[in-house]
Structures are given as structure tokens and as C-alpha cells.
Design a protein that fits this description.
The chain is α/β, with parallel strands linked by helices. Helices cover 43% and strands 22% of the residues.
Length: 212
């Protein structure tokens, strides 16, 4: 399987890229531990594609490196998308890449598991995940994992960030490797999710158990 990390960080080194790398490493670890699945990671740095993205808007077709990046994203088994926060939303470069990629086809990411993440200078912008990124990928019909990860400057090295990364990575790994069905004929379904293993009992079976 393959994960593609889309990073819209502009600086070098970049906290946005660092967050993407940590999410990817955690997802690879969880997929291997939970389902014994080997996952390859590819990183798309939008900073290197800025000129080709701008040209695509004016000439209508992608350059060689942009086309390769689009192919990598659309063929991935899972995506980790990370943007810095500018003016209380995702960066223009981040939005432009997905505008170019989707073109006239908003179903290009349909059904693809996506982990959303963002970085910013203040924790006050953490809701960017919910009011900007999640609606964007819902519009593209991707499957967005429940836990998004926002890292403000003060979060690095503080308690909580590592736990959010692990939880989000577990959810993405679970979506990528799929649900595990229980034994046929039992009527119950065993599901492995981010929170561990639990059992779903059919409603009819629960009613039967309540009869005197």
C-alpha cells in the first residue's frame, strides 16, 4: 500500500512537513502493528510545484512534475494533507493544487481515506480543520478520518500532540486496511477501529436475548 503526504509548507525546515512526516511514520507503524501491512510513503512538496500550478491555471495542462504529483495522489491508498494556516484558512498554494487536480472532476478523490492536518502560530486557528479542510475534502467525496491534527507553535514538545498523531494515524491505517469481518454464521461482526477491537451484535439478536 502507499501513503502520499501532501505538504504545503514553504520554509526549510518546515513544521508543516515535520507534522506530515510524523503522521506518516505513525500510520506506517500502526498499519504494520494492527494488520501486518507494509506501507510505502511518498511526499509531495507543493513548494516545488508552485510555478507549474500557476501555469496550469493559464494554459490548462500540468507540467511534467505536477502531472507526476497528481498521479501519485490519485493512485495512493491513503492521503495525509498538511497546510500552514494563512488568514484563518488553508494556504492558497494548497487550495490551488487541489483545484488543479480535481479540474472538472470532483470525484477524483471519491472514497479515498484522507487525514487532514494543519500548522499555525496560534492555537486559536485550530478550527481551520473543521471549517476549511474537512468541507473541502467532503466536497471531493474523500473519506476524512474523524481526528484531524492541528499543531500550533506551542504544541511542539508539549503534551497532547503525540497522542493526537497516534489517534489520527490509527484511524487512517484502519480505513486503509479495511474492516475485519468476524466468523461467518455468528451474526456478529468484529471490527477493528482506532479505539481497538469491539463487537457489534445484531439488533434482532439483542431482542431475542431479552425475551423471558
Amino acid at each position: 500500500m502507499k501513503i502520499v503526504v501532501v505538504s504545503a509548507g514553504l520554509s526549510v525546515p518546515s513544521s508543516t512537513r515535520l507534522l506530515g512526516d510524523r503522521l506518516a511514520a505513525a500510520t506506517v507503524r500502526r498499519a504494520g502493528a494492527d494488520a501486518d501491512v507494509e506501507v510505502d510513503v511518498e511526499v509531495v512538496e507543493l513548494r516545488d510545484l508552485a510555478v507549474e500550478i500557476a501555469h496550469n491555471f493559464t494554459n490548462g495542462f500540468p507540467g511534467r512534475e505536477l502531472a507526476a504529483a497528481i498521479d501519485a495522489v490519485t493512485s495512493a491508498d491513503g492521503l495525509i494533507v498538511v497546510t500552514p494556516v494563512f488568514s484563518a484558512s488553508y494556504s492558497g498554494l494548497f487550495k490551488s493544487f487541489f483545484d488543479v487536480m480535481s479540474g472538472g472532476d470532483k470525484d477524483v478523490l471519491a472514497g479515498k481515506p484522507v487525514l487532514i492536518a494543519a500548522t499555525g502560530g496560534s492555537g486559536r486557528h485550530s478550527l481551520v480543520l473543521e471549517h476549511a479542510l474537512r468541507p473541502l475534502f467532503a466536497y471531493l467525496r474523500a473519506v476524512v478520518v474523524p481526528t484531524g491534527v492541528y499543531a500550533a507553535s506551542e504544541d511542539w514538545g508539549a503534551e497532547g500532540l503525540a497522542e493526537r498523531i497516534e489517534r489520527a494515524a490509527g484511524e487512517l491505517a484502519g480505513l486503509m486496511v479495511g474492516l475485519t469481518a468476524g466468523p461467518r454464521g455468528s451474526g456478529a461482526v468484529s471490527v477493528t477501529g482506532a479505539g481497538g477491537r469491539f463487537e457489534v451484535i445484531p439488533f434482532a439478536q439483542q431482542l431475542a436475548a431479552l425475551r423471558p
